[in-house]
Amino acid sequence: MTKRSTTATNSNDNNNNHSPTNKRIKMADGGEVVLNWGDWMGSYKTGNLVDNESERIDRQKAAFGGDTIARLKDLNVLIVGMQGVGVETAKNLILSNVGGVMLYDGGIVCKEEHRGSNFYVTREHVLEEETTLGAASLTELRTLNPFCRVDLLDGNSTLTEEIMNKDVLGTRRGYAAVVVATMLPKKELFQLNELARANGIASSWQLRMITDATGEPTQTLAISNVEVLDSKPKLLDVAGVKEGEQVVVVTVAKMNTDLRQGMEGLNGMSVTVKRVAIASPTAAKVDTRGVAFKTALGLPTESVVSNFERQYDFYKSAFDEDEGNANKKFPVRTITIFNRLAFVLNDDNGKKMLEKPASMHSVNMNLEVTQSSTPSHLQAIQVSCRNLARDAGATNAPRLDFHEKNNRWPQLHNADDSSQMVEIAKSISDSRKDIEGACWAQSIQYGFPMGEPHDVDEKRIARYSRLFAAELTGFCAFLGGAAAQEVIKASGKFTPIDQWVHHDEEALVVDDIAIMGKDFQARAANQRVFLVGCGALGCEYLKGLALMGIATGKDGKIVVTDMDRIEVSNLSRHSCLEKKVGDDSEDYFNDKFWENLSVCWNALDNVQARQYTDARCLFYTKPLLESGTLGQSAITNYNDGKESDDNENQIAMCTLRSFPYLPKHCIEYAKQAYFSDYFEFGPDVYENFRQDPMAFFEQLDTMDSGEQSRALRMIKAFIDLQEEAGGSIDLMPDEMEKSSGKKFWTGTKRRPRPVDWNDPMPLLMEYLYSTANLYASVWRAEVVRDRSEFQAVVDELKLEQAIWEPSGDKVDLSEGDNEEESGDSGEDDEKLKGELYKFAADTSKLQPAQPQEFEKDDDLNFHIDFLTAATNMRSWNYDIKASPRHAVKVTAGRIIPALATTTAMVCGLVDIEFANSCLACSHKAVTSFSTPTLIWLQAVETSQHLHQTLPFQSPRVGCPATTSFTSWDRIDISYKLNELSVEQLVAYLEKSFGVTVNRIFLHGDTEDRALYNALDKKKLDWTISYNDEGKVQLVTVEKVKVSLEQTKESFMKKFQGNVSDAYLQVYRPSEEGEKQDYFDAVFKGRDYLTLGVDCHTEEKEDITLPCVKYTF
């Protein structure tokens, strides 16, 4: 059988608080060592113990979770049809690591037209004239994932026989799903449907249990306060709880936490979860987004209610005093408080549960979804806000009837077949008019059928017939991803599509060469595409470009660049396998390169690179195709350079350092404070000091005070370690109180508990094992990978816990993020420098150290094992739930959840948009590229917006009114004969745009450098003066005078000199070497500068002009 993944079922991986079963290991000398630790660790595993399958699906596991990954291994899938959609579906399911995939190609032999949709069909396959589509694809599909069984159904077997198979691919399981990715005759399709349902294959579609409707990650929320209100106040609104009844109000830790979604899943426990709301007079106009309201929510619930009661009484009194309000109802609004929940106690167990509040976890509620069978699909009304869906529904039944009548499908561009299809559609529509709930040609308004007859769209149905035999690469990729995702949903993950997905790209149809015409094919062949990124998205795009015949002409070209190395976890999404794009590669990606491009195509996973390519496309006026995925979510547009990494949840340093209360706090601390300090930063600065002490002390002066102290302490610690010097640990006192007298360890501040090394738990041995081996790697010593051998070494050492005594130093109770050292830190640093100077004279006796560069995908390097042990040690200290190894790996390694299915769908949609862009450029009458294209996938009661494209805007060279420009605008200034001075440029800008220039700088530069700064100009008016007593206002007159005159002279020289000279003076690197050579190469290759201009209007409104292209 295929090797099964063990990580999803390993109890130690799910919760490190569980003690593993004791294992007795026989030693070579006949002794015995008992192991009860470390089964979850990866560093001791070599050879057959390494779980390569688990490593491949880290990104997928981050999106699905371990339970779903395990269930996917139980899925066997039969794929019927190996044209474009079939091979795409097979590829995506194999990469998704299902148990097995069986292919059925119906004996269709490879032809030339198949090379545009099935990416495994080669010219040799076509010339052989006997190789079937499945045979051409089988070998390559198997290479995608050695842990998924893939085979081709024997030509002598029939679908009806195979679907009854109860031992598919030797798995002792039958099929869980059948994907029909080709056109089958009506009789065969209905028979296949009935057999599947009769054998339980389609039961998961007929009545499906959904354990996770959206796939969004659940939240762990710390409870900061629990209040038992014996009598519910009048203004407090809790559904089902009457005034005066008891209710428990729970406040979560973060003020901005929004509990609007998914709280139903908490019901069914010993308490019932309810919303908390407060009544407020409408006239009060409370701003729920304002600071005052959010601050008020930080108070206890009784105080919040008391404040609102005073407000209520004030406005109610004023309302009653107004005679005009007689017999009127006092207007009140209900404000839901989203950082609180009410627990309605159903029994005594609920009360006991609240005695020790810690944290809550959002739970996914199970849903049941029913879906109808294939025959009923063909008659059910398809409701849509667009009439095309009505006619699309009318094309499914006619094509089946056409085949039943002619024993073949409609042929490409066959006028007789299209006429026949139209007549069949009309006949079916007329026959269904009197059948309730059937689909027939009727008008639709507001998305609903009106029952009024509507002419069948003959043009659309005829076109459907003419193009029936054709396949589009983008559509194949999208549908293959969607079909594979529907199969995965059999695991209970995500909500299935409600019967149909329909998407129509009318603008692509030109009716010449198959679909898009000769002009498109000629233009596509000569496209010059710059593909930035060659990861999962990039490989999918390359496949699409090849299938569409892009860049096959004499002027065509595809340039691919990627700066990242391939990670094992990428292989679950790659179907195939460095010059970095950025400010430091503009000597290669120069003006000529960008100006010759037809389109830039992003396939990136970081914001900085996307912002750079976006800025380049704006400057060179090139179309940009953008996309990205995050688990089951995707985006296919770019938000005009406003994207930022700052939207990630930032954790306050004081929380990480002193007051953790969530598992992620412990993970981040283990990564930032433990690993980074002791195995990356520490060995690095120590080695710099050991190799060249004087150079290190020079470098030390360039560091800020905090980094200086950190570096000095780490070096001293590494030297002390070699001298076997001991250290000390200060623990906080047990009874800490704030100056107000309030207990310190309340709310989310958990009192830490010390570890007892005299009675070690398994976690302590895991921590010792990973830490000791990491230090061995730092000191280039041999690691001890065998756990039994390590256990024997530890036992032989007979380690004892040191006796701790309080230092007597005052403990810092600060809750802020101020990282500055205490007042005497400078004095301590000087002492450390003095001690290190003693070693600087002769460092030959110091051992060399090897800094550890964090690598998440190498289990043998102890990195993830150490972080997991350190995380859970800290979690144990603060009584926080332990984190499984994979959760630590995902968080610390910044692993982005990714799915092959999502990647395929989004790439297919962008392929379609690329085709749209080619047509928009080659056919003036085509306008759809300026119209956003939408695809909606229905999920439960809401629609999920999957795809939207934004129109390409023609750039405007020149500048409109200073308050109305966009990112597409640019100011062009050209003075090639006589170059402008900085003074003349400032005057030109101020006169042309009616502004006062504050600064002129290199466009995009964020540092405080400038060709011109108005503040420097003001220094021209500075003078040295005396006060009335004759004393000099500025100390050391002569020195200050000289300095001021030099400043004025320097400014005037730059101000009155050429703009290009000022640019060189400010931005050219001063040190000779690689950076200066690169700068000179880029500067000599251009006859222009790109400048940014900060200025203000007469009304003192600060504005930034569009990019200025100054040609000289």
Please explain how this structure is put together.
There is one protein chain. By secondary structure, the protein is α/β, with parallel strands linked by helices. It is 38% helix and 14% strand. Strands 25, 26, 27, 28, 29, 30 and 31 form a seven-stranded mixed sheet that branches. Strands 9-11-12-10-8-13 form a six-stranded antiparallel sheet. A hairpin with a 2-residue loop joins strand 21 (628-630) and strand 22 (633-635). The protein is globular. The termini are far apart. The relative contact order is 0.09. The N terminus is likely disordered.
Key traits:
1112 residues; alpha/beta; seven-stranded mixed β-sheet; six-stranded antiparallel β-sheet; 14% strand; globular; disordered N terminus; ThiF/MoeB/HesA; ubiquitin activating enzyme activity; Ubi_acti_E1_SCCH; ligase; Ubiquitin-activating_enz
